[in-house]
Specification:
The longest helix has about 40 residues. This protein folds into 2 domains: about 110 residues, no CATH class; about 140 residues, no CATH class. It starts with a helix and ends with a helix. The radius of gyration is 26 Å and the shape is elongated. It is built from 2 helices and 19 strands. The strands form 8 sheets. The protein has a 3-stranded antiparallel beta sheet, with no helix packed on it. Strands 7-8-9 form a 3-stranded antiparallel beta sheet, with no helix packed on it. The chain has a 3-stranded antiparallel beta sheet with strand order 12-13-14, with no helix packed on it. With about 250 residues, it is of the alpha+beta class.
């Protein structure tokens, strides 16, 4: 009976974990540049003496869907949609460099350009612009400003956004939602070199690549799977109680 209990319990736990991933994706269905998390399950045989019939469930693959989301024109000068395989470099909370596809850039009270609270990296580090200036971003990431009270013809380039390119397998999602290069032999994630050929579209935003409809269907599927596994546990428990009752009668 423990075989049935073990298998159902293992499946129920992984169903809950998968439901958490789907819920997280659904919550970010409208987050600019969000990449859906992926989680695939696989049945495996439990190794050990006397356990050839026990089966467990484990995560087979866990990563991100790098499919590009829909691009929408906003007309806002600080909104950028990364083109192709380009990524925007930002400074993570630990001070290290990370990458995102989110492009709704903001300017804080100190003149620092940020994305979701993370400083945007330009030439030489976090990028800052004069407060009150009019900021424009070119297709190659060049940031130009017209200071307050100045003629529009006085536009001057102050820095350039760091844009990088990496293949789908070249970046890994962190717990903070930002992406980084895989750790090297020393376990440290090294910054990716800037790609001068990377381009962006100013005045537009890339949306999330999460399909709300597919996420809702996945949530229902996971809930039903979890319910089925819990029923299997109840059935195993009921069968065990009936077997004990029969043994007690025979005794």
């Amino acid at each position: 009976m423990d075989r049935m209990l073990f298998t159902a319990m293992s499946g129920a736990k992984q169903s809950l974990d998968q439901q958490a991933v789907v819920t997280h994706n659904l919550a970010n269905a409208v987050t600019p540049g969000f990449r859906a998390q992926l989680m695939e399950l696989q049945a495996v045989t439990v190794d050990g003496e006397g356990l050839p019939t026990r089966t467990s469930v484990r995560i087979a693959t866990s990563g991100a869907d790098f499919t590009q989301g829909p691009v929408t024109r906003t007309g806002r000068g600080l909104d950028v949609a990364l083109d192709g395989d380009a990524w925007l470099a930002v400074q993570a909370s630990d001070g290290n460099e990370a990458y995102t596809r989110r492009g709704d850039i903001q300017i804080d009270g100190n003149g620092m350009m940020t994305v979701a609270g993370h400083p945007v990296i330009g030439d030489g580090g976090p990028l800052m612009v004069p407060l009150g200036s009019e900021v424009t971003i070119g297709a190659d990431g060049t940031v130009s400003v017209v200071e307050e009270g100045q003629d529009p013809d006085t536009s001057a380039a102050v820095s350039r956004l760091k844009l990088v390119s990496a293949g789908d397998a070249g970046l890994e999602r962190g717990e903070d939602g930002l992406f980084r290069a895989p750790p090297d032999g020393t376990g440290v994630s090294q910054p990716v070199a800037a790609d001068d050929a990377a381009r962006l579209v100013s005045g537009a935003l890339e949306g999330s690549n999460v399909s709300a409809t597919e996420a809702m269907v996945a949530m229902i599927d996971n809930a039903r799977r979890y319910e089925m596994q819990m029923k299997a546990i109840d059935s195993a428990d009921d069968n065990a109680q009936r077997a004990n009752a029969l043994l007690s009668l025979q005794g």
